[in-house]
Batch of 4 targets.
Target 1
Amino acid sequence: MTCRIAVFGTGYLGATHAACMAELGHEVLGVDIDEAKLASLQAGQVPFYEPGLQKLLQKNLKSGRLRFTNSYQEAADFAQAHFLAVGTPQREGEFGADLTYVDAVIEKLAPLLRQAAIIYGKSTVPVGTAARLGQRVRKIAPAGNAIEVAWNPEFLREGHAIQDTLHPDRLVLGVDPERRGPAEVLAREIYAELLAEEIPFLVTDLATAELVKTAANSFLATKISFINAIAEVCEAAGADVTELADAIGYDDRIGRKFLNAGIGFGGGCLPKDIRAFMARAGELGADQALTFLREVDNINMRRRTRMVELAREACGSLLGARVAVLGAAFKPESDDVRDSPALNVAGQIQLQGAAVNVYDPKAMQNSQALFPTLNYSDSALKACVGADVVLVLTEWSEFKELDPVELNGIVREKRIIDGRNCLDPAKWRNAGWLYRGLGRSS
Ligand code: UGA
């Protein structure tokens, strides 16, 4: 059955969700307050890099199933299902999540809802938010009790957003057990094609659904920090963390995924989500339960400092050194530089007196906007000209395929530090390079 859907927020999450829901055959309206973003999307241009999304957007615009608007009135009159996909960044100077955007959508949308509708939250929020929003909506919407708020957390990874939306590992829906309405029935219609693939569909209460998301991201962050802590020990003991990860990863209770040691996690989700989780647990009086996440955060931030130290060790001193930085995005197949470990390391090295040349296949524009004082080169080879050390900080395949022999005559010193353990050490060493990987003996 075709459903009428509005998606509020057209960033990485919202734009992907809107295009994917149209791809499933639904009538979709993407809603945002950012005129420039809307104009770009309506013209078939995705304002960020996500593999395959532009094609999907254009296809569904053409079919007429997908449109964009800034009109909340239009969305309220049109949709049976309203998805909230706006950002919940970290509050300035605090650990807690900033719910300004979520609240703003509710305050603007609810007074326009005259007929029964369901609001599905997708944004990552502190537990308790969905229940609070439900009460608020029913108070201010003309349709009152006919409005249901449900929570349908999103687990998509940037760079794999379409696959993760159309073929997720699982679907989770939180509903209020006290006032169970049609949210589950409509969700089953919206996701009928996914359910036909036998993707697990878990219906929980609101708080559990909210916590599933935060717990999942906290587990992933913990897994990465675990292997990075082991990397520190490997460095001290002269062992190799990548071989260790392979060996423990064969145990399927552990699994090899998310055990890549390096400069750690960043992006718009993991770092702020673990902090918001700690803050919320504190409010609930359960702060002790999550004190380990503070250590997860510390281990992660220490990897960035360690990378700077290794660069300094390689050059003797960073003052006056020329450092090539390959990679600026927080991970490959993305142009996102929010809390990017790569850019953070590049910035620290520059502040310590080195001349830093950055190259990234997709994130140049975003990096320049965030860190205008770094030097940017438009190819990996150009970034490496005259370098005293080359740092690989994001594991783009372009960097894995670099030919050390080709770089030999370009750099000043043949030294490479692999911040993502993504290169083949033998290839570089055989070409006469000094290779260092994080958590691997020199
Ligand atoms: C993460 C989660 O993986 C998604 O499931 C979730 O939906 C999303 O946050 C969100 O909350 O919206 P994402 O931020 O796109 O997705 O990126 P990840 O693939 O999780 O990578 C996060 C960071 O961890 C990156 O900086 C990556 O380089 C780093 N990482 C990842 C490692 O350092 N080592 C690893 O083994 C894996």
Target 2
Amino acid sequence: MFRSIRWKILLPFALLIILAMSLLGILLSNYVRQIYLEDLEDKQTAEALLIAEALKLAEVPTGIMIDLDDAASEWAKVLDARITIIAADGRVTGESHEDRAKMTNHLDRPEVQLAKAKGSGSSIRFSHTVGYHMMYTAIATYQDGQLSGFVRMAVPLNKIENKIYTLQMVITISILIFTLLAILLSIVISFRISQPLRELTRAVKGIFPGETVSTDMQYKGDEIAQLTHSFNAMSRQIETQIGEIESERARLASVLEKMTDGVLIVDEVGRVQLINPAAETMFGWHSGPVKGIPLVEVTQDYQSVELFRKCAQSGNSQSAKFELGNQKIHLQAAATQLGQSLPGYILLLFQDISRQVHVDNMRRDFISNVSHELRTPLAGIKALTETLQDGALEDPPAARRFLERIENEVDSLNLMVAELLELSRIESGKVPLEIIKTTVVDIIQPAFNRLHIQAERSEIEMDIDCPDNLPEILADANRLQQVIVNLLHNAIKYTPKGGKIILSARLVDQFVEFMVKDTGKGIPASDLPRIFERFYKIDRSRSSSGTGLGLAIARHLVDAHKGRIWAESEVGRGSIFRFTIPIA
Ligand code: ADP
């Protein structure tokens, strides 16, 4: 408690005030007493001179003793004092209060000695006779320049002492009051001085950035006000800086949040310090805060740990490509030391390249498929031309047969090239669709008509089931006809004699759903998800039956109409192909 600045100011001040006031009190009361006594001495001297003058002591011849007791008593009554008249040799010649016979020679009395030496003198002594202090004042009387005797006055000091005591009491009380007031004042001053300091301390302890301390008008311009101002300025500066840091952090956090690449920051011993949502998703981390958890626990993947380890050991950036086993995600990963900004920390960056890998795989498949598909008809043509060269030309009917077969192979090559071209044009968006309001019948009927004969030839029954009241759809009629033709074409191709195909359409929510249903051989469930891929054929050995591009084209065209295409099938019982197109 006494350590506070308030007490540090207050205590010395209070002590100083008490000390100064006590000293002042003592000095003052002594001084007053002195003045009183001096006054009294002067008065007694004057009175003694008066008595001497009145008694004409000067005229009493030296050596002649006369009784002056009565005169002394008279004057004593008038002046209310004890009066002693002493001869020049010290014998008492007149006494107002005591029995003169018992009185000894008075020449040795200090006041008499002083009077003898200087003309007057006084002395204060305790009187055993009366029981209190008395003041004795004596003057010397002269005759013709010769000492003729002394007049001595004596008054008790108790009256004066009483007066002095009262005065001292007044002084003491006023000093006490002043001391109290001074202490109160220093309490107030010390409180007011320490008040802003306490506020400063509270604000600093609280560390509420931006909190300021009010400056008292009284301290305007003094050190405390300056300190307070400086503190307030510092507080505001800290607030601004914290604000900047906060917004910087928020920006960084939102960048990390929105990034599609996974980011991890790992400390030197391999504990994760930061992870962004993309990385959480990649590694399937759903267990809350990640700080301090080992990398291997977070990623559950040895390859990322290996990458981290290599980077930590070599001090150089490392990169690697790998597949996350359980998630089937292909990652391009990089590890970099964060250097001076965070010594020992390593930044791990993961980019999901699954799509790119998928595209690469598709391209590879595509090239091998195309070469494979081209090789078969080309090999056929080559064999036929060799047979012709080897002598079949000499046999005109056989030569014609071979030429027909060459023509067939060239046709299928043409078809494939045309379909490939078409597909690549659709995929690259180079086929502008003319999407307009179209009736469903305008799409279904022409497609049905185009394949009706072919179905009849294959002895397959083909029907349309389409209500009249269907709303118009948004479509490029020619392109949608092509989709239906492709589906019908497949249905005819994969349905045996005596089978049945139904082409229908119906309204489902905001879409018209088209359906091609056959009673053909069906599609195995394992193949169903893949039949819309380019070159995907279920029975690869029956290569001549198609290119594997028809459904891929159909899917692209339906996608371009913002619709959806899918298939359902049961092996041996038939297949159903459906696709939706939004209504106008
Ligand atoms: P393709 O030109 O070979 O018919 P598609 O892309 O049109 O190529 O079809 C891909 C594969 O899907 C075909 O090879 C075939 O095995 C299967 N398929 C398509 N439609 C049917 C269907 N209606 N019934 C049975 N299988 C079908």
Target 3
Amino acid sequence: MTQDEAKRMAARRALEFVEDGMVLGLGSGTTSAIFIQELGERVKQGLKVRGIATSAASHELAKSLSISLTTFEEVSELDLAIDGADEVGPGLALIKGGGGALLREKIVESVARRFIVVADSSKLVATLGRFPLPVEVVQMALPIVTRKLEALNLNPKLRHHPDGSLYVTDEGNVLLDCVCGAIPDPAKTAADIRAIVGVVEHGLFLKMASLALIAGEDGVREVLP
Ligand code: 5RP
């Protein structure tokens, strides 16, 4: 099975949790994009849902598939959010933000009654940290935040696009990817990073996911926190 096939299996399984009338959080990244495409098919067949997207890209994709979109002017809570992850660790502690959308993802998922992660089995890890931990930073604070992350031995690297241009998030901030290796105590690392003024958000999603649908050779496994 290819990684893309596994992603599709997880995304399809997630559709089984969607009910008519729900307000959904729509994630970002390739697995979420497959979910949104599959959701679009269901909408064509008559399913009525509204969504709030976690990135401009997911918003545009949902719009192109005629999925109704709403805003936090209209809703305060979501029934269900579906999103991918870069790493899924014990207790469903996650690293997210590989696609640069961690800020909106965390906002949307923080108000979802249920947050389901969709991923292929390569994302499951015993300890978080093999994947660089993204930290979103206000541009003018970049030098001081960089020094403070260095002092925490988190080894921050400024994110660029493959063409060398600076990566700027949907909210106009920049990203420092912390190539820090194993994160033995994610709650402490999250608190240390959050204490730095100029940090907007970080990619550790702790105690947020309710379920992970992890697809691999043996099918889709349901993993609880
Ligand atoms: C984007 C994310 C994505 O959910 C994460 O990068 C996983 O992406 P993919 O499904 O493409 O592997 O956090 O900010």
Target 4
Amino acid sequence: MKKRLFSGIQPSGDVHIGNYLGAIKNWIALLNDYDCIFSIVDYHAITVEYDPGLMQKRILNAAAVNIGAGLDPDRCILFVQSQVPEHTELTWILNSLTPMGLLERMTQYKDKAKQNEKNVNVGLFDYPVLQTADILLYKGCAVPIGEDQLQHVELSREIARKFNMRYGELFPEPQHLLSDAPRIMGLDGKSKMSKSMDNYISLIEDPDTIWKKLSRATTDENRKRRNDPGNPEICNLFTLHKYFSNETEIAKVNKECRTAEIGCIECKRILSDNMVKALAPIREKSLALMNKPDDVLDVLNTGAKKCRKIAEETMEEVRSLMGLRLVKV
Ligand code: AQP
């Protein structure tokens, strides 16, 4: 029996190269080794303001891009969180085991509360408990994520432990899995690449936009003029070269940036060409799937059906352990 793996992505905007390098690429690599469940976590995406008229499209697009990137739905389950009501039921139960103090420490909550000062809602605060329910509902042992989600997975272990101690052994303590690109910085070089910030390159970006975005991206800020030698170690774009360029190109950029043989524009051109090449097949497949939303819907409905069955079974066990299942006496 393979171990169960769970992870999710919010339909909160365009899926970007940070999501891909930090999570999706790893999901694809792990398909053989685990029994994989991936979710488009729409309930997580409603904790900030959004346009309900766009949500359906965002969900379908997020699914299409994940499949387009290589997440083969024949080798995993892909479904939408809100199609399985047990996610919110288990959240309520886990809420009653989670100390407020632990949630107050979550850095993502603190950051998002600062970004959305006018809408600091309970959902935003409770986000990590819903995430714990997402994982535990399927008894997920492994959770491949980017570094920003590390604290949440640590919390999920703590909540699983609390449940097991209080009501009886049921849940595994989920272990995080990080990729070799756990934190891709945004094009500003200052904050994490994020769907909700204008600092990303999406997986379906067209070649012109990739070039436009890269040509404006921040590099080594100490390099003021073309003839100044640069320092690749502190240049965000050099980090991206490591994921898109070949070894010879990386060595060339590394050397010639330091000696000012090439300037930032030449360096960006190499990166842009390689990124366009690498993303082309993902873009092509994703766009084709976006034009066939019924096919994507079929995949998601099949996934939800499988997940509902697992989720119902887990909730029966939860209710039983908690004395919430009424039986004839
Ligand atoms: N910049 C990143 N580098 C590496 N990994 C990342 N992930 C996100 N950004 C980066 C990982 O991608 C997976 C899906 O992320 P998510 O959609 O659940 O939400 P998020 O972490 O909040 O991502 P965003 O793009 O920053 O969304 P918004 O702006 O809506 O909050 C996760 O495993 C995440 O770690």
